[in-house]
Structure formats: C-alpha cells, structure tokens
Design goal:
The chain is 79% helix and 0% strand. By secondary structure, the protein is mainly α. The chain has one domain (5-193). The longest helix is centred in the first third of the chain and has 34 residues, at 40-73. The radius of gyration is 18 Å and the shape is globular. The relative contact order is 0.14.
C-alpha cells in the first residue's frame, strides 16, 4: 500500500503470473480509490496492465512446457478431446473468474491451460482485457463512491457475485454453442476469431 500505483502494478503482475495472492489486487484497488478518488481510474488502468502482463507471463510459461506435461500425464484420447473442448469453450473459463471480483475462482489453472493447449496469444490477451477492464474499473468506482465501506458491500453480496458468475458462464457457453451451429461465411470475422 505504501508503494501506491507502483505496488499495485507489481502486485497485479505477481498475482496473475501464478503467485497466489487471493483478492489482494481487488482490495488494493478499492483502498487506493477510497484514499484518492481522483486516482481511481488511473489505479484501475495500472492494475489492468499489470494483470495482463502477469497473465501473459503465466500463459507463455505454460505454453513452453505445458503441452508436453499434458501429453505425458493424460490418456491419449483424453488430451485431444480436452484440447478440442478448451479451444471451443475454454476462454469462457478464463473470462468468468477474470471479471468477477473478490471471489477466489481458479483463473490461473485456466490461464495455464490456455497456454499449454495452444490458444492464440492475441485472442487470449483480448479475453483477459475484456474481463479485467470492467472488473477493475468497477472496483475503483466502488472504492471512490463508498470508500472504506466498499469491501463490506462486496462481502455482503458474495452470493450475488457467485450467482452472477455462474449465470455469465452459462450464458457464454450457450452463445458459443449456438454460434458453433450456425454456418459461417467465408472471410467472416467470427471465422477469423476462431
């Protein structure tokens, strides 16, 4: 906390790179925004950058040796089936814990899986940014508006956040399933995204 934005950036990098620091970045964003509301958005942006960098570090570490590990420790057909499933739905498992604050959802496992299973780095980074930007901006807003009562507000709404996470995951999986059934025109953005 004494390091302010620099400490927030380093903490976000370490947390997203695989060092377990549950909810510490969330708490620090709220604290910094409550202490200095004028810096709330800046704090959120710094946390997003740090988290994206940390996720990419873990992603590339897993990409280096994760695929060999998976092949060596899973049944032959199982690896291929899991790879196909993850290519289709796996980034939803990165997005949901990435966007829902405070809850200790296991994002690092899915970040490592994305790297090990060969998800495209740009696609992965866009999903991380799509999750972290609203999460950290929301926490900064909450900290700036509610101040020291922000964390208590989040604790009181833990079940709501968990329900939202499950609903969001179900919605994303349904949309992906429906999108997979539609014929895709050649050159379409959706086809390029896959």
């Amino acid at each position: 906390m004494a390091w302010g934005p620099i400490g927030l950036f380093l903490l976000a990098v370490l947390d997203s790179a695989g060092i377990p620091l549950p909810a510490s970045v969330d708490v620090l964003i709220v604290y910094l925004a409550a202490k200095n509301p004028a810096m709330a958005v800046t704090s959120a942006i710094i946390a997003v950058c740090g988290s994206a960098l940390g996720c990419m570090i873990l992603f590339f570490i897993a990409r280096k040796g994760g695929e060999l590990y998976l092949d060596a420790h899973t049944a032959t057909g199982m690896t291929a089936r899991f790879r196909r499933w993850f290519q289709r739905y796996g980034l939803a498992t990165v997005f949901v814990p990435g966007v829902v604050p405070i809850l200790p959802l296991p994002m690092k496992v899915f970040v490592a899986s994305a790297g090990a299973l060969g998800v495209r780095p740009l696609r992965f980074l866009l999903v991380v940014l799509a999750a972290r930007i609203p999460r950290y901006l929301g926490l900064a807003y909450l900290g700036a508006k509610l101040g020291e009562h922000s964390l208590e507000y989040l604790r009181q709404h833990t079940w709501h956040l968990l329900g939202l996470a499950l609903l969001l995951l179900a919605l994303i999986l349904v949309v992906l399933r429906l999108a997979g059934r539609r014929p895709v025109r050649k050159g379409c953005f959706v086809r390029q995204w896959r």
